[in-house]
Amino acid sequence: MRRVNIGLVGAGTVGGGVYQAIQRNASLMACRLGVSLRIHRVAVRDIRRARDVRIPRSLLTTDWKQLTQDPRIDIVVELMGGTSTAREVVASALRAGKPVVTANKALLSAHGESLFSIAQQRGGNLYYEASVAGGIPIIKVLREAMVGNRITRLYGIVNGTCNYILTRMKREGADFMDVLRDAQKLGYAEAEPSLDVDGHDAAHKTGILASLAHGFWVNPALIHTEGIRHITQRDIEFAGQLGYTIKLLGIVKARPGVARAANRVQVSVYPALIPNSHVLASVNDVFNAVFLRGDIVGDTLYYGRGAGQDATASSVLSDLGDAALDLLHDSRRRVPAFVAHREGGLMVPIDEAVSRYYVRLDVIDRPGVLARIAAILGRAKIGISSVIQPEVHGGGGVPLILMIHDATNAAMRRALTKISRLSVVRSRPSLIRVESFD
Amino acid sequence: MRRVNIGLVGAGTVGGGVYQAIQRNASLMACRLGVSLRIHRVAVRDIRRARDVRIPRSLLTTDWKQLTQDPRIDIVVELMGGTSTAREVVASALRAGKPVVTANKALLSAHGESLFSIAQQRGGNLYYEASVAGGIPIIKVLREAMVGNRITRLYGIVNGTCNYILTRMKREGADFMDVLRDAQKLGYAEAEPSLDVDGHDAAHKTGILASLAHGFWVNPALIHTEGIRHITQRDIEFAGQLGYTIKLLGIVKARPGVARAANRVQVSVYPALIPNSHVLASVNDVFNAVFLRGDIVGDTLYYGRGAGQDATASSVLSDLGDAALDLLHDSRRRVPAFVAHREGGLMVPIDEAVSRYYVRLDVIDRPGVLARIAAILGRAKIGISSVIQPEVHGGGGVPLILMIHDATNAAMRRALTKISRLSVVRSRPSLIRVESFD
User: Fold this and answer.
1) C-alpha distances in angstroms, A93 versus A98, A136, A163, A326, A336?
2) How far is A170 from chain B (nearest CA, A)?
3) Residues of A in Cβ contact (< 8 Å) with B33
4) Which domains does chain B have, with CATH numbers?
5) What is the largest CA-CA distance in chain B?
6) Do A300 and B140 touch (CB under 8 A)?
7) Helix boundaries (H) for A34-104
């Protein structure tokens, strides 16, 4: 049986998980694939560091170049994280003609295009199933299973930290800050939580998915990104009363190009109200899910753990299987890391994107307030689909909830600026988009 | 660009859908794959028959041998259905060394092994993504994405007709026969519904999934199969009160073999109560879903349309993409149709399988009834986890619902036979298994 030697760069949580998974299931994979996977060398920062997963000292080195330059190593797996050394490692392995497997979405998001181009020049390939949505095989699904479909809609719950926080806020009636602190204690959120709760991590992942779906590499700086810090307990409660659940979504919506014009694609990350009856509304805790609508297949959904040692390891093993078969069959660029093509598209600026909205205002309880607000929306030709003014006991302002029909983000923003200047409006309005999946 | 010529056998609902999908998206697939797919010839039973999808007369033939023997045809797609001529078509194309794509689960279930062996001898391959769960890429997920995982549990809602009937029974409080008749009118159920409602179709699909998960070809005759005819409105209602939903499930549970012994695998199809909080409980109408638990990845779920022209076409296109890439890279047996291997297993007879149960009895309302029933279960060492005796107005018997702890099917069957002989039990007990996904 053909033996495939793996060089592992990084033996932290994910690297340790991959080492362990290969020890556990390499013989099963050999039965299935006809290839024997074996870890040949592991590059780490500090050889003496205590590790949860025991790796024989003889495999360890601090010099990653020993892996990328070693002709006995067939595949390099980059699991060190970060974007500077990791970039060197991946580029060096690709230049040496080796296939590379990575779980590093930040690296791909920042330097994907240049790494893909090195792979192409050297006839190698870069595999990155583990970079998006952990154990969910969404990269394989998009590139292979959906190869016959135009992807008209993609909605992803791709950040486990945010989903965990929103799930607990809804379940327990707790506030964002309290749940965040608890999530930090439990290890579900970082001490510096911005990457997760401000939506940046979700934007990295959504950009990768959008690129694969639409055949042009999405610049992550152009992805309109909002996090969940501004979601309050009250919003979750009012949304619930209206039959909705709030989730942080990565959103990719395509408007087909007319005649031979390019598709126009909206790529955004923001929290949104989704109907409780939709399958995505029941994706809870740290689980991830990606909902795809194809022009042939219709609606599909893929669900699983979005992060963690084992879920990530599962996707790395899947990539290793593909990379090993590609070596065995000498078909290394069978499914290239990325294919830009003429059916690609252009990004739609968020201002031009159309959606529905939930608006919560804090107003003075006085006759005529709704009329003044409705007049501003009316002049902007923005339709109100429903209004709720819950009864409130105790002094101060009262909440006023408006559900708004389809409007562009620009029109909505302008109208809201005017509304917030009204003397009867007491504080900054809360605006959350509504996704109805039609 | 390499052109790949397709010979299509069958132009009914599914064949027409595939023809249409290729017309629509072949140029997109060419961008993505670097291969141009083109329908070269279509074999049909009757050339003059009116078809929803217009196919040029010049492509049509009534002689399928013109496709399987034509050296200009690169891939044969069998979409005629049935198991006799379809078997000849597939075998003939494989003998001619051509890769074959099929959506025919009945064919695979009955003759899979012999067809796989012809493919192996001739160095060809058989692709069958569309044979299970329509547009859900479950074959690719099992064979490629989960290649590094031992599949410890698989639960599939794989028959859209049954799921549609059970969904409407629950939603509307309707009876099985009424919904079945309506489903037949709407085209969701056949005039002869046995294949669907008695679980045979689900058994074909579950057998294929179990075989791929466990590396031994499952004989469908050994799959314990129950349908949904005996599910009553009352059972759905009582299950709902207990927090459960009834779904027809294809079930594959593995008990790892001790030391070097083979795995023991339960493969069954039966309706079961599943907790409302589980994602599978919200899979409704004609949708399908497959829940997979891997020893590395944990819990994952795949959801989509399980049948219909377009969902099936999407999976055929995915297989065509793989088959075309395999031709391009001369790697036709990269992922063989089926790999039997030494980590395979043995079927567990249903009598030995352990599960929990819901039992509904119709008893005479008299003191001491529960004591007599409990005594029978107690002597059999079967534990009762809860009892509900709903209040009933009007004469006759009263329902008595027992929730039963883990017990073997044999022990439960024996106890139930004794219980049904009690004079206080008025009619045949209703027994439905409970799956708690632990």
Assistant:
1) 5, 26, 35, 16, 16
2) 15
3) 147
4) 2-134+310-328 (3.40.50.720), 138-306 (3.30.360.10), 351-434 (3.30.70.260)
5) 82
6) no
7) 65-68, 85-95
Is A406 buried (19+), middle (13-18) or exposed (0-12) by CB count in 10 A?
middle
The DSSP bridge partners found for residue B247 are B272
Write down the residue that tokens 């689980």 correspond to: A287
A129 contacts chain B (CB < 8 A): yes
Cα distance between residue A358 and residue A361, in whole Å: 10
Rounded to 5°, angle at Cα A91 from A88 and A94? 145
The β-bridge partners of B300 are A304, B292
Chain A contacts of B297, Cβ < 8 Å?
A: 135, 304-305, 310-311, 314-315
Distance CA B161, CA B437 (A): 24
Residue A110 tokens read as 């920042």
* Beta pairing, strands B345-347 & A345-347: unpaired
The reported pTM is 0.96
**Contact yes or no for B27 and A343 at CB 8 A:** yes
* A186 touching chain B per CB within 8 A: no
Residue from B1, B91, B42 nearest B325 by CA: B1
Q: Which residue of B has its CA nearest to A129?
A: B145
> Residue A258 above 70 pLDDT?
no
pLDDT tens, per residue, chain B with 438 residues? 999 999 999 999 999 999 999 999 999 999 999 999 999 999 999 999 888 899 999 999 999 999 999 999 999 999 999 999 999 999 999 999 999 999 999 999 999 999 999 999 999 999 999 999 999 999 999 999 999 999 999 999 999 999 999 999 999 999 999 999 999 999 889 999 999 999 999 999 999 999 999 999 999 899 999 999 999 999 999 999 999 999 999 999 998 666 666 789 999 999 999 999 999 999 999 999 999 999 999 999 999 999 899 999 999 999 999 999 999 999 999 999 999 987 767 899 999 999 999 999 999 988 899 999 999 999 999 999 999 988 776 667 899 999 999 999 999 999 999 999 999 999 999 999 999 998
**Phi, psi dihedrals of residue A129, rounded to the nearest 5°:** -55, -40
C-alpha separations of A403 from A366, A438, B321, B378, B387 in Å: 21, 17, 44, 58, 46
Burial state string for A334-361 with b = 16 or more CB within 10 A and e = fewer than 16: bbbbbbeeebbbebbebeebebbbbbbb
Sheet arrangement for strand A2-9: A60-61, A35-43, A2-9, A75-78, A100-102, A126-127
Cβ distance B314 to A24 less than 8 Å, yes or no, reads no
Could you tell me if A262 and A344 are in contact, meaning their C-beta atoms sit under 8 angstroms apart?
A: yes
- Scan residues 245-274 of A and list those with Cβ closer than 8 Å to B: none
In order of A30, A99, A316, the CA distances from A17 in angstroms are: 19, 20, 10
φ, ψ at B434 (rounded to 5°): -120, 125
Query: Which tokens belong to A308?
Result: 């963690």
